[in-house]
Design a protein that fits this description.
The chain is built from three helices and no strands. It is mostly helical.
């Protein structure tokens, strides 16, 4: 029974990341069109950094990653 809870928690975590990436795409779409998969990658790595390093430095990484790698104007 515990396995069901773990699998559902992992599923909900992934679903939450996908929804956040789509929401972030809607905010950025005003300026440029960005692929959702690159936003999802930046979101996931930023979240991993937030788990390891304090002070929410993963958010700074996420902004830097998308700005430098995916946006034309940087």
């Amino acid at each position: 029974m515990e396995g069901v809870y773990i699998v559902s928690a992992i599923f909900l975590l992934i679903l939450g990341h996908i929804i956040k990436s789509i929401r972030w795409k809607q905010l950025i779409f005003v300026y440029e069109d960005v692929d959702v998969t690159s936003l999802l990658l930046a979101m996931s790595v930023g979240q991993a950094i937030n788990m390891i390093i304090p002070y929410r430095l993963g958010e700074i990484y996420r902004i830097w990653r998308v700005g430098k790698k995916d946006l034309d104007n940087g």
